[in-house]
Amino acid sequence: MKAAACFAAIMRACFHVPLSCAATPFPLMECMDNDCYHAVVTDPPYASGGLTTAERKASPARKYLSSSRYLSFDNDTRDQSTHFLWSVMWMQEAIRITRHGGWLMVFSDWRQLPLTSDALQVAGWTWRAVVTWDKTEACRPHQGMFRNQSEFILIATRGSIGKEQDRPRVFPAGVFRHYLKPSDKMHLTGKPVPLMRHLMTVLPPGSRVLDPFMGSGTTLVAARDLGHVAHGIDLSRIMFALPRTSWAFLFPDRGQPAESSPGFRETRADRWRECLTWDK
Fold first, then answer.
1. Chain segment 78-134, per-residue pLDDT in tens
2. What does the pLDDT read at residue 46?
3. Counting beta carbons within 10 angstroms of the beta carbon of residue 124, is it exposed (0 to 12), middle (13 to 18) or buried (19 or more)?
4. Is 0.70 surpassed by the pTM of this model?
5. How far apart are the first and last CA of the chain?
6. Which of 169, 45, 39, 52 is nearest to 105 (CA)?
7. b or e along 31-60 (b: 16 or more beta carbons within 10 Å of the residue's beta carbon)?
8. Which pLDDT belongs to residue 155?
9. In 3-state terms, what secondary structure has residue 232?
10. Residue 233: strand pairing partners
11. 106 forms bridges with which residues in the sheet?
12. Of the four, 55, 123, 220, 222, which is 20 to 30 A from 41 by CA?
């Protein structure tokens, strides 16, 4: 299966955050060793945003926003059955590459919350909690109806999370209220860096984190801020399409990426191993 040409593995020489672009995350995830991540933290396509087939098959830019400010993305038009099977497939691969006691944190909207919870349990994860992102009353209103101002993060682990005395001494809130200003958003479904940092407070120091649907990379930024190692995969060249101001926002202490950079090259699934150096 071909992996898309991309701004692939902007590796240690560029950002110390390996990235790759592929048609799906599966070929790259299949090349990874067992038990090599402490957490998979990600916001996959929801295949949501409509009550009819025609509405669900519309462009995400049309379904989720009334503005065309952000680039759209693919793989968001599956029906319930295929979306469930697809979710189980990537979650099974995710649990294989996650260490025992490691974490899965996956975003969902209210429509796909039951499906996502079923999928992660079928894949073998132990469902632990649901964290709510309260986007505040600034979200788009619907007259005569409650505001859909929340998204949900399903929290699961690979088996036991271990003894309490061995876990980080933190007690993060289960509801995180944060307004994401449009000026701070670089992807159609971008998530705020403070929220991603909040989620990762339960991870042990120096964790290795994978985001197989990285979008604009806020998971990677938050992981870096907390001292973790972060790797990202996405099917789109969205990151390469970001303007210089967006790169400056994401990586204020790094230079602007360029195709001539030492770490800029096409990465296929069979070359993924040589793009990463595991610090085992």
1. 788 898 999 999 999 999 999 999 999 999 999 999 999 999 999 999 999 999 999
2. 83
3. middle
4. yes
5. 29
6. 39
7. bbeeebbbbbbbbbbbbbbeeeeeebebeb
8. 98
9. strand
10. 20
11. 42, 154
12. 55
